[in-house]
Amino acid sequence: MSATASATAPAAPTAATEARPATTFFYVIGGEFTDTSFESVLTRSNQIHGPFKTHDEALSKWRSLSFQETGNAQVRYEIAEVAHRMDRRTILLG
Q1: CATH assignment of the domain containing 81
Q2: How big is the CA angle at 51 (ends 48 and 57), to the nearest 5 degrees?
Q3: Which of 67, 5, 69, 81 is closest to 31 using CA atoms?
């Protein structure tokens, strides 16, 4: 090791600083948009469904919602994947 290199290793993470594992959830979001550019959703139709634990559960909900609106070209839904990091504070304040 050279004289200029650091001889100390990085500190090991402690219970307080250790990153908690993220839990992934899926949401189905969408609704009726103002037009087929799908840039602006009508406020009254904005929908969020979930959280779902698996993509398959979210896909089932997406299919159900999408097939209800097959006659309206301005309705669109999508599945969003979100990583939630849970810690004691989140659970208590939930």
Answers
A1: 3.30.70
A2: 100
A3: 69
